[in-house]
Design goal:
The chain is α+β, with helices and mostly antiparallel strands. It folds into 3 domains: 309 residues, no CATH class; 42 residues, no CATH class; 34 residues, no CATH class. The chain has 13 helices and 13 strands. Strand 10, helix 9 and strand 11 form a beta-alpha-beta unit. The radius of gyration is 31 Å and the shape is elongated.
Length: 413
């Protein structure tokens, strides 16, 4: 783009220096070791007051350590970026085409990385996956480093951890260091803040109620997973024969063994199963709850039993994917695309926008039949709306266009 800039670029907004990153890494701790319901309640209450550090570290550890969360959360985050994107226009005009070109260059050339893991880098797909962290943690924050160049404007997006921010005054504020309680205001157009559902608040409750019985289950297995030993002998207590029996039992087991008088023999002592333990049902229930929160349904159990259940859960997943795509598209339009267009075109009306594609679930054959019926009936169909409905972008003015083959005509001889 050669249009002259009409909007100044914001300065760098955050301290993402190596010193800040090193300090943040050194002060990290394991927040889920021996986590109790009371501790989690305190962290959740602090989160509602705007202090994010403890619960953000806890949620981050849960997503990485819990096998169910480590499965369902990445699937939800990745699904929004797998179908691609388009830049669409609201009208067919030279001004709209210019705006489209500006946005296409910007989104095709942006870079995304992570403050605490600079080796992670990518483009718009990575940016969208990072923005999806807001679905779990309520907020996902990127510092925007604008990068003008001879070919046009683009930017670098640095994904910052949530514990670098606080929200005690409603709007997020950036904490200057790890020891700060209150931060400084965040410069407009210098940050990308995505706000999602924050389902980790409910998932963390399920996590605790899953891992408490899981620990008890492991303790139960350690204690009763192997039979005990009961030695019987007629020897007097503390006699050489008695001590020999004790030594013999010790050679078999050091943890669960006993000696009593009678004929010399060794028996296995097994705990009789008097009923189903409550551990597995609780663990399974919490796993299902976390799956439903992230994916809209427990795809591993009831859906396999009947087609109706699978169809309902598939519909729930479609709703979440469409909503996620709309969230990402609207957030980028409001906080990024508008600044890009202002940079080039000042206060001109916005005529181009970013659309995140979703899986095509419509009945294409039925749509085509309806469109054909409307055309044959003389009903007007807008080219732009029709192309958007079939997830086809409007071609550029200079592009070569496909043409329908010419049907040969039959001549009478």
């Amino acid at each position: 783009m050669t249009t002259q800039s009409k909007t100044p670029l914001p300065a760098a907004a955050a301290d993402t220096s190596p010193e800040r990153i090193q300090m943040s890494l050194r002060l990290r701790f394991n927040p889920i070791r021996n986590l109790t319901p009371d501790q989690l309640t305190q962290q959740l209450e602090s989160f509602r007051l705007g202090f994010f550090r403890n619960i953000a570290l806890t949620w981050d550890a849960m997503e990485r350590r819990d096998s169910r969360l480590a499965t369902v959360a990445p699937k939800r985050k990745k699904s929004v970026a797998r179908h691609g994107w388009d830049i669409l226009t609201t009208e067919n005009s030279p001004a709209a085409e210019q705006q489209k070109q500006a946005l296409e260059y910007f989104y095709n050339n942006l870079t995304a990385t992570t403050a605490l893991e600079p080796n992670e880098s990518g483009g718009l797909s990575l940016l969208m996956r990072q923005m999806m962290d807001a679905v779990g943690k309520r907020y996902a924050v990127h510092e925007i480093v604008w990068q003008p160049g001879p070919q046009g404007l683009t930017a670098k997006f640095i994904f910052c951890p949530l514990w670098w921010f606080e929200g005690t005054q409603g709007r997020l504020r950036f904490l200057l260091n790890e020891m700060s309680l209150f931060g400084q205001p965040m410069e407009p157009w210098g940050w990308l803040v995505t706000v999602g559902d924050g389902i980790m608040e409910a998932c963390s409750v399920a996590y605790v109620f899953k891992h408490l019985p899981l620990k008890d289950w492991l303790g139960y297995s350690e204690k009763f997973g192997f039979p005990g030993l009961l030695g019987k002998t007629d020897a007097a207590k503390d006699s050489p024969e008695w001590e020999a029996m004790v030594e013999a039992l010790g050679n078999f087991s050091n943890d669960w063994a006993a000696v009593m008088g009678r004929s010399s023999e060794i028996q296995f002592v097994e705990l009789k199963n008097t009923g189903a333990t409550p551990f597995q049902p609780l663990v399974d229930m919490m796993n299902e709850e976390m799956t439903r929160l992230w994916r809209g349904g427990d795809l591993g159990t009831s859906s396999k039993a009947n087609a109706i259940g699978a169809t309902l859960q598939e519909n729930e997943g479609d709703i979440l994917e469409q909503d996620d795509a709309q969230l990402i598209g609207e957030t980028l339009t409001a906080q990024v695309s508008r600044f890009v267009l202002q940079y080039y075109f000042g206060d001109a009306p916005q005529l181009a926008y970013l659309k995140i594609r979703t899986a095509e679930k419509q009945n294409t054959d039925q749509e085509i039949k309806v469109d054909q019926f409307l055309l044959n009936s003389g009903a007007p169909l807008a080219i732009k709306d029709t192309l958007e409905r079939y997830n086809r972008p409007q071609p550029d003015a200079a592009e070569s266009l496909l043409k329908a083959p010419i049907t040969p005509t039959t001549k009478n001889i």
